[in-house]
Amino acid sequence: MRLITFMRKGAQHPEIGARLPHQAGDRILPFADCAKLKKVANFPSSMKEFLRAGDVAMNQAKSWVSTAQEDAKEILLSADKITYLPPIPDADKFLCVGKNYRTHLEELKRTNLIKEIPQEPTGFIKLNSCLAGHLTEVVRPKGITRLDYEPELVFVIGKRALGAKKDEALSYVAGVTILNDLTCRDLQLREVASGSRFWTAKNAPGFGPLGPEIVTIDEIPNVYDLWMTCSVNGEERMRVNTSDQIWKISDILEHFSRFIPIEPGDMFSTGAPGGVAVGKENAEDLYLKPGDVVECSIDGISTLSTTIIDEA
Questions:
Q1: Do 7 and 14 form a contact (C-beta atoms < 8 A)?
Q2: What is the pLDDT of residues 61-99, one digit of tens each?
Q3: Contact by Cβ (8 Å): 29, 15
Q4: Could you check whether the bond before residue 212 is cis, i.e. omega within 30 degrees of 0?
Q5: What is the CATH number of domain 94-310?
Q6: Secondary structure of residue 208 in the 3-state scheme
C-alpha cells in the first residue's frame, strides 16, 4: 500500500489516503471519504494517528485499497487534483544516520569532511520545518553555490520500540519512504571546521523533500537489497545498493531505542550513498542549480521529484 498525506487543491486542511498506481494516471483514495462511504466512525485523520492505531487501521485501509476500483470509484481523485505533503510532516523524532555507506565515507574522507569511520551509528536531527513534499519547488538561498543531493532510504516506525533487539527490528517498521537530504556544502565545510554537527547545512526551509509516499513494508522484497538512485534533469548521477550500508535498520533501531522510546510515526533516515556531487572531481559542475529537476528513487518502487529554484 502507498500511504500519502496530501491536500486537495483549494483546500486548507491536510488529509491522508493511498496512491493507487494506474496506467491512465494515478488515483488517490482519500481515507476520510472512504470512512464516510463505508460508515466507519472515528477513522484516523493524520498519518501519526493512523500509525498509532496499529493493525486495525492498517488492515482496514488495505481492504479499502484492494476494492477501491470496484466500490469506491466515485470518491477517487486524480493525482493532479492534490498537492503532495511530506507523508509525516510532524514526526516527534526524525533521526538521520550519518556516515553509513562505505562508498560515501570514501568521498567524505577525500574532501576532509570526516577523519575516521565511526564505531557505532551516529546521527543528527532533521527538523520538521525543513520538510517538503513530492513535486515541490525548493529555493536555493542566495550566496549558496554548492547545493548537493543526497537520496536516502527512510524507515517509518509503526509501533513503540524501547530496548528493541536486532532480530525483531523489522517488526517495528510500518514502511519506507525517500528523503532527499539536500546539503549546502559551502556551509557544511565551515560547520565541520567549527565542530558543528551539520544542522544548519541540512535544515534550511525545503531542504528535506520527503515522500512521495510510505510504501508499506509488506511491499518491499528485501530492505537490505534495494537500489537507491538519483537523477538530475534525466541524467543518472548515482546508483548504489543498500547492501553497502554499514549500519542496517536492525543496528540503528537497537542502538537508538536503548534509552529513548521510539514512537509510531518516528523516522530513521539511513544515510547518503556514494555518488554525491561533493566527492567528484567535477563537483562544481554537478552542484544543483535553479531549474534542475532532481529525482531520488528506490529503483522500481517509488520516486521523489523536486525542482530547484533561485531565491527571489
A1: yes
A2: 999 999 999 999 999 999 999 999 999 999 999 999 977
A3: no
A4: yes
A5: 3.90.850.10
A6: strand
